[in-house]
Amino acid sequence: MSSLLIRNARIASENETTLRDGDVLVVDGVIRSIGTALTAPEGAKVIDARSRLLMPAMFDAHVHFREPGQEAKETIATGAEAAINGGITGIVMMPNTSPAIDSPAVVKQVLESAAKHSRIPIYTSGCVTKGRHGKELAAIDGMRALGVKMLTDDGDTTGDPAVLYRAMQYATEFGMFFASHCEVPELAGPRALNEGVVSYRLGIKGTPACAEEIIIDRDIRLAHAAGAHIHIQHVSSKVGMETIRWWKQRGDVRVTAEVAPHHLLFTEEDIGDYDTHYKMNPPLRTKADTEALLQGLIEGVFDLIATDHAPHTPFEKSQDFVSAPNGITGLETALVSLYHYFVATGKFGWDLVVKRYSAEPRRMMGLDPVPVEEGKPADFILFDPEAETTFTTDFMKSKGRNTPFLDKTLKGRVDLVVLGKEVLLER
Amino acid sequence: MPRKDLLDIASLEREEIDHLLDQAVPFKELFTRSVKKVPALKGKSVLTLFYEPSTRTHSSFEVAAKRLSADVTNFDVGNSSIVKGESIRETVETLQAMRTDFIVVRHSRSGLPGAIAKMTRASVINAGDGAHAHPTQALLDAFTIREKFPDPTGKRVLIIGDILHSRVARSTSTILKKLGLEVAYLGPGSLVPKVGPENTQRFTNYDEAMKWKPDIVYLLRVQMERQDVQFFPSLREYHKLYGVTDERLRHIAGEGLYLMHPGPVNRGVELCDAVMDYERSLINDQVENGIAVRMAVLYWLKPDSQD
């Protein structure tokens, strides 16, 4: 495809609350012009958008692709296709693979597999400590040389604050930043479940929200002292959000934070009778928490939305609640669910979605955002707000079927994904 | 309508509870006859799967099944391939292939019996899962209380001990509240959750709790084995603050209160020796009634067709 003309689109951007009507002409992977009644060049592919939304493709800064080591759950190939299916053209892998991504050798293995099997760019984080054990520092500069920017022991907190503090002092000099999964292990239950009404009813030891809030505060304090950039992952509690807001208001530490769609949408009550499709870490908490998190997203306390896409095999999730692993998938459901529950109901606009799920995650990773503007690379999607998506196993490209949306129908559908010269998806 | 499984008390309707308690009465009457057996479940098979040690619950189920003429097999978990790493699913599939009609399961993991119930056509009876539920204990407790108070509405039951880790506290308080009784919890602040229990008074001081004027004092076994961190400083301190000491027993006797305990008891911890001889202790009634209500449960449940 040398050129592509999309007519009659409504274009969304991170800076405008209103949508702009127009045609978009792409030539050789670059947005050549935006206007009305553009003429299609000879041989151009022409798509009538019929007033569907055209917006920058999403970018997910928190996913688990399970390669190497747990390919029954997901591979880079299936994970990347799941991302495309959800309107996402870039992701950051977490390093809790097996072996963990804690050395240049494993980073190289991941990036080589990505180059071979993925149609979208794959970025990977690296461990703070070897094997994510929280003891010895990982090969930080060796990973940086291969493009790693984010250091995290995600899945666990880096337990020893002295280790994390030294790592921050060391790696900040190389322009790297830290992402924290926040949880005091001694306060955590054996499995992810909020301490409260539901943990009592189900008879499983719960994890109090303070287990997360303590480390949110600890890690920001460490970054404050070390002059590091700290990114707080998947915040699940009201006080956690307020802690980040307090530090941001001080303005003397570089702190960013993310919220996951499931923490905005669901509460512990949804677990019902031990439904493992609502089991993830940090756990679902209360209605007061989801309301505060939504407020935090609207206010800008959360810089980005990220899914924590965590595929597991159907067998693993069919076990009893305590035995089943933590995590749900998210790449294929995120955008549609954000539209269905929030944009369509007027809680926030498309500008927020573009800013928090496309532009800001790219900026955090040191990448340029991909606005739909003349001269910018083509990296966008078409979204039909009038259509519906049913999340059947046939629809989903991820190996994981562990989502609360399994076989559910929501408003909205990703119809087209364009990256450079390629049409990655067309429905 | 009979159910396939008995997993907890919360999902039972009031009518179902009444039915089971009524059904247990004629079964209990059998015990005084010279032939204690009826052919109700002749040809049916009951398999017990106990992953946690148990004396009275296990033997109670076994006696109940045998008095209904069912064939009972004890799946010896210690010697099975479960210790070789076989998953629960594989074990259940094996039992399914054996066409077992009833599986009685006890496990330390909350929710496991429910997961098993979804994997098998057999009726699954939860004989205690983690801190979640112990429905047959709740039924026998309700039966025992109804023998003393034919209309128990408004009677007050004070449950003392480790509420946080107790499946008995959860299931028994649920059934009592469904039957119209009032329930209060007493124990150390670290073991009586502030969030979770509904419609239940919470006490952490023995004398304050007694001012609530209970009709029945229900003692729980203090389970040191379920505590991953210390919840109170010592058993001695627990006994001093919450145990039924000789002095407290005199007060309980003076008020004419009934005493219950799911067993096995820790003498010198939640109660003193003299409690075992207390005339209003219902501990032995509970054991006997346990067989009757378990017969009622086995008689009531209907496995899915094995064809």
What can you see in these coordinates?
The complex is a heterodimer of chains A (427) and B (307). Chain A has 427 residues and is of the alpha/beta class. Chain A has two domains: 3-54 and 374-426, Urease, subunit C, domain 1 (Roll), CATH 2.30.40; 57-364, TIM Barrel. In chain A, 29% of the residues lie in helices and 22% in strands. Chain A has helices at 76-85, 104-117, 140-144, 161-171, 197-202, 209-226, 238-250, 261-265, 287-299, 314-317, 334-343, 350-364; strands spanning 3-11, 20-27, 30-35, 45-48, 53-56, 58-63, 88-93, 122-124, 150-151, 177-180, 229-232, 254-259, 304-305, 379-390, 409-419, 422-426. In chain A, the strands form three sheets. In chain A, strands 1, 2, 3, 4, 5, 14, 15 and 16 form an eight-stranded mixed sheet that branches. In chain A, strands 9-10-11-12-13 form a five-stranded parallel sheet. In chain A, strand 1 (3-11) and strand 2 (20-27) form a beta hairpin. In chain A, helix 4 (161-171) runs parallel beside helix 6 and helix 7 (238-250) packs parallel to helix 9. The model of chain A has no long low-confidence stretch (mean pLDDT 97). Chain B has two domains: 14-133 and 289-300, Rossmann fold (3-Layer(aba) Sandwich); 135-287, 3-Layer(aba) Sandwich (Rossmann fold), CATH 3.40.50.1370. In chain B, strands 7-6-5-8-9 form a five-stranded parallel sheet. Chain B has a four-stranded parallel sheet with strand order 2-1-3-4, with helices on both faces. In chain B, helix 4 (112-119) links the parallel strand 3 and strand 4 (123-129). At the A-B interface, helix 5 of A face helix 4 of B.
